[in-house]
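Format notes (please read before filing issues)

Several people have asked whether sequences and structure tokens are stored in separate files. They are not. Every record keeps both together, in the order shown below: the sequence lines, then the token lines. Line labels are part of the format and must not be stripped during preprocessing.
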Amino acid sequence: MQRKNSAGFAVLAAAFIQFFLATDSAAVAIGGGVTGGSALTLSGIFEKLEVPFDPANGALNEVGADTFQTPNLYVFDEDQNIQITVTLAVDVGTAPMAGDIVASHYVFFDPDSTTTIEGYVDFDADIFGIATSTAALENSDFLANTGVAYLSPTLRGLEPSDSVSIDPLNANRLLIDFSASTPGDYVRVLTMESPIPEPSTAVLFGIGLAGLAGFRGRER
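Then the structure lines:
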């Protein structure tokens, strides 16, 4: 009996640790694709970048001002699970309010000549909103990744012919439809806080662990 209880205690303890580690995980981009436009004809692909990254036409961690020059759709994660102190204006979706916890992601398309692209980017949390204007991008730059240089900041954002939206059937998916040349199209996506366990759930885990520990103690 002692061996069974010991095994049960170990399994529950492992689940308890995994459960709470999972609640601290960052909200990140998890996938995407190029589905149309001349970028698809040019074999453009979706690519998630990890910081540090090394663009072909720029220095380490530089983005903007023609540093990539490919038909690919890119994303990289910026600051994660940050509690903001002011309401953040967005151009698409819902503005996160002071006290909300958000994660930030930078999505861009930087071709070497005028190119169109349709595609999507998936995240592991629902999208709050999207900054597509120069002003909204500048106001949210405090969420940018430390060490990344955002070049040509006054030229960031989208033109009237470009569009981004949140998929009405999947709040985790960003839909894009861009036409870009120099210096490219750049948007910031703000996703919602990763789920945090209810206090009652944590208490139940604790009770389970305590109960198994008590059984082990009595058997000894």
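For reference, the curators noted about this record: The helical segments are 2-23, 38-41, 134-139, 199-219. The chain is about 25% helix and 30% strand.
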